[in-house]
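Lay summary

Proteins are chains of building blocks that fold into shapes. Our project writes down both the chain and a compact code for its shape. Here are two examples, one after the other.
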Amino acid sequence: MTKPILLTGASGALGRMLAREMAAQGVALRLTDIAPFPDAVPEGASFTKADLNDGVTILRLAEGCRAILHFGGVSVEQPFEDVLGPNLRGLHHIYEAARREGARVVFASSNHSIGFHRQGETLDLDCQFRPDGFYGLSKAYGELMGRLYWDKHGVENANLRIGSCLPAPVDARMLSTWLSYPDLLRLVMACTDAPRLGHAVIWGASANPGSWWARDHRERIGWAPQDNAEDFRATIEKKIHPSEVARRHQGGAFCVIDYSRPTPPPVDAFSLD
């Protein structure tokens, strides 16, 4: 019998979609979230309400699992103290559970770990982290946690730098960042089923010609996105954020939150900017 997969953040928009679609493909799932599961629990799945800060419960939920899909935690920009517990301490609990069980981790990282890179700049997997807030900073921490647990303990992990994962793109920025639900599903399934993973970084975006993101480890898992934001161009290309800070940086509106520089610096003001 195939071992089950643990999915955290199961009550969120992406978690609910993954739970529904993966269960429909016959994947045995253990679902967990701090919030109640809002839908009927899919056939072949179970749900446990749990806090990522509760390491004992996370260890128990992961027993016998072959993979942990970590989509839990704070998913938007919040004050540091709100991010600290679920996104940092909680992630440590996930990796300790994976180490004990010999499980693979698929981590929902984010484009906000590199959000202060300029729009139009093409980034590879080894680009510098430039988080656009405490949420993005926690995702950079999460990727480094994966690096540590692979190097030190051999825990395989995929770090999915998810762009804008919605049913359809809603503004001009998403011509570059959109990831469709079907492409995310195919990406997660490829990560769980790949014979070899190691420590992998994969840009979570559909096949958008305007993408800012290039080289990554997708060849390890045989994943190629199939959807394309260009199909929506006519309805979204004029929907541009009013802030120059948002328009300039890949993180968009997240870069504006608590931004306190008096004016955005010129693009070439400093070599380190």
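And here is the second example, written the same way.
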Amino acid sequence: MAEPAVHKDPFGHHRVTVTRIVPMTATVKSYTLALQDDATFRFKPGQYIQLYVPKGDQSVAKPYSIASPPDQEREIELCIKRVEGGYVSTYCDRLAGGESFEIRGPIGKFFLREPIDSDLVFLATGTGVAPFRSMLRGLFPIGPGDTSWAPYQFSTDPAGPLPVRQAGAGRRHAWLFFGVRHEDEILYESEFLSMAERYPTFHFIPTISRPGRWQGATGYVQDHVPKHVTDPSGKQVYVCGLMPMIEAARAALKGMGFQREQIHYEIYT
């Protein structure tokens, strides 16, 4: 009699320790998870992990996008919003640091298509910006020790070397359209502003749906794309957020002339 096939989990399992918790807004915190032992964690920006937290004698899993820069292999950063009735998010909101968990991953196919030979358009709302923070840190390095992630390096320009401040993403352009309700909820704002200041090819358009004294873009995030991106040719679009935003963005992009194969999305739940 043949022995039953053994189905192995294709994804890695790791033990991590919470080493840093930083409040970002009234409901969102950044969590840094350090891998235990000598393990390293290699992933493609845009992928996610399953985080397992205890519940009685069992555990509950919840997927969270990796927000870390792609060359960070000993720590994983997550951006988690406390949701009323959400067991894992409210559990994490009560953490003090030092806790240990199991994670599974990296998982997912929501990452930039390589080689990167197109302009890039990113649309996000809320914590849906987390995978784009990871992607953009690989494209437009801003930290003192950062370098552009090797798979994201564009081919050399035949006209000669680029100025240092443009070196991160060559002469390809990238736009980040990021929508939140209130102006104090713009996650990673200082990083994105630093990128925009350092790299002329990066364009940051934060959008507020319930403005107070906000003087910038307002309304729905997808409505601002046609004002900045006038030609869909030679571009790839990445969208991340809740289902209503995904559907509205896809309809708007198709109305602009983007083809299905140019639009990639990740639905948050």
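What can we say about the second shape? The longest helix spans residues 243-256.
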